[in-house]
Amino acid sequence: MSYADSEADRRIANIISVGRVTAVDPAKSAARVQIGDLLTPFIQVGQLSAGAIQFWWMPSEGEQVVVAAPSGDMAQAMIICSIYAGNAPSSDAGTPMINLNGGEIHVNGTMIVSGDVIASGVSLVHHTHSGIKPGPANTGEPN
User: 16-25 and 64-68 as β-strands: parallel, antiparallel, unpaired?
Assistant: First the structure.
């Protein structure tokens, strides 16, 4: 096989790859990925939206990800998504879920919820208060 043919085969093989994250640099929105014998340099982590409306995420070390490399050129590669590897947070396809693993989520703007919000077992819509007194006094904690 000629050099040109083998280079074309290599580039085609590199267009879409699956690997595991080995290091993360949140300040640069980048991560390194082990794909077989290849350890990428720090490559950009694609986001759902990065314009006026933004959704930010960074993969974890060890997380399985899909890497896309335009024209098979790893110098232009980026992480485009993650793949569950036996660690899905639920087996119920009918219940969407965000698992923050004990972390926090920050919303910069107004959040409108058309249903109930339940925090630590307390319903925002159906909770009750104790210690209600007429006048300007504050109520007790929700029950």
Answer: antiparallel
